[in-house]
Amino acid sequence: MCGRGCILGLTVALAALPAAPAWAQFNGRFAIERHFLEAENFLDWRAYQPPPSWRQRAYAHPNRMAASVGSISQDRFYQAHEIWLEKDLGENAAILYRQQDESLFRPEPIYQEIELRFGAGGWYGSILGFPRHEKINGAQGLAAAWGERTDDVYVQYAVLEQYSLYNERNVGTERFRPVPVLHRLQARYTVPDTLAVDVTWRREEPARLVLPGLDREQTYGADRADGTLDWFVSPRLTLGLWGSAHSERRAQLPGAPSADDPTLRQRLAWSWWEVYGTLSLGEGDALTVALNDAQFANRIRASDPAQGFRHRLQTTQLYALWEHPTGPWFRWMFTFQAGTVFLMQDPPSHSSRQEEGDSVQIKAGVGFALVREEDYRLWFHTTWDGDTFTQRQWDGGNLQFQLFF
Fold first, then answer.
1. pLDDT at residue 13 above 50?
2. What confidence tier does 168 reach under pLDDT thresholds 50, 70, 90?
3. Who contacts 378 (Cβ-Cβ below 8 Å, separation ≥6)?
4. How far apart are CA 244 and CA 29, in angstroms?
5. Between 20 and 30 A from 218 (CA), which of 3, 122, 258, 271?
6. Can the peptide bond before residue 131 be classed as cis, meaning omega within 30 degrees of 0?
């Protein structure tokens, strides 16, 4: 899967993450496209996620950076990164910054947000958003919160108006009716050394772009929910749940539909859930075992049936990670994955890499991590095909890191 030049590509992609253009939450794309995933992609995606202990460590740290990049086909990388920064401005004010990106089935622009927070006694109000060189692409909003984002109890509700000056400053005839608005609720509850729950809900209200000169409209709306639950049963055992659900809806509505310009409606949906357990085996060894179910669906309905499209991928897999330290800062990382995959596409793909129908996929991984608990974690990982080992052995590679500063 990861052909000639893969290692160089991984390194370059990881180093270049912050160079992508910055946009608000809605990426401005109304285009209806035939996005798809390939049979092994959810196994690749899971192989490139950090261990649960990395996530737990990150929750309570106000200044951090993490990134992951790995091959998911001969043509595409999976990449994800986040940066969180916070600095107090006196006793009752702070400035916060975050940057996030995750690209799986399509390239995603980086989301950036600056927050200026004021408050005391546990209650806070914030001004947030991100400016752009072209004012029509900027975003601005307000938020109210109880607690700070690294506290044991934290709740924030934010409303962000995206492309807030588009209608006023755009020289063309296109207009949002209304402009895209993001509602976001974040909540965290922690009992130290016992329980940690973290939930984020986002809703982007339906927005409509009117193009009078072309006698057509384009619409967009989205919902997303993410959550984790970590239960620290004992110093040796942690159990947890992790899940995410995404949905996007788009439509292209011409005034006079035809075969060349049909009415199109699209629903993109992708989700996953996972239940896991991590057991300390003594001498620094740790074993994580998880059951993961993931789904991706892209359905395009058209007034001209020939332009419709359906794609669905469902993967249920067993995942295992064994961490074996051989020194204070070096540990071997071994993974194993096995699962069932269902792939369907209409019209069928002509790519030889698409394996439609039901199949069983097996992967194994070996790598090493350089770790200093208070400062950094750096994981070099390779994956190997188990179900096609006689025809192809090396399947891909991944680099991950987590920094605290």
1. no
2. confident
3. 369, 370, 371, 399, 400, 401
4. 22
5. 271
6. no
**Angstrom distance (rounded) from CA 189 to CA 313:** 34
Task: List beta partners, residue 41.
Answer: none
> What Å distances lie between residue 145 and 62, 94, 141, 185, 196, CA to CA?
16, 13, 14, 10, 19
Which tops the pLDDT comparison, 212 or 54? 54
Residue 307 burial (10 A CB sphere; 0-12, 13-18, 19+): middle
Rounded Cα distance between 79 and 70, Å, is: 7
Q: In angstroms, rounded to a whole number, what is the distance separating the alpha carbons of residues 319 and 342?
A: 18
How far is residue 90's CA from residue 148's CA, in Å, rounded to a whole number?
15
Which tens digits make up the pLDDT trace of 322-371?
999 999 999 999 999 999 999 999 988 766 556 678 999 999 999 999 99
Q: Can you name the residues that pair with 253 across neighbouring β-strands?
A: 217
The amino acid present at 331, given as its one-letter code, is R
- Please check whether residue 148 is in contact with residue 141, taking contact to mean a CB–CB distance below 8 angstroms: no
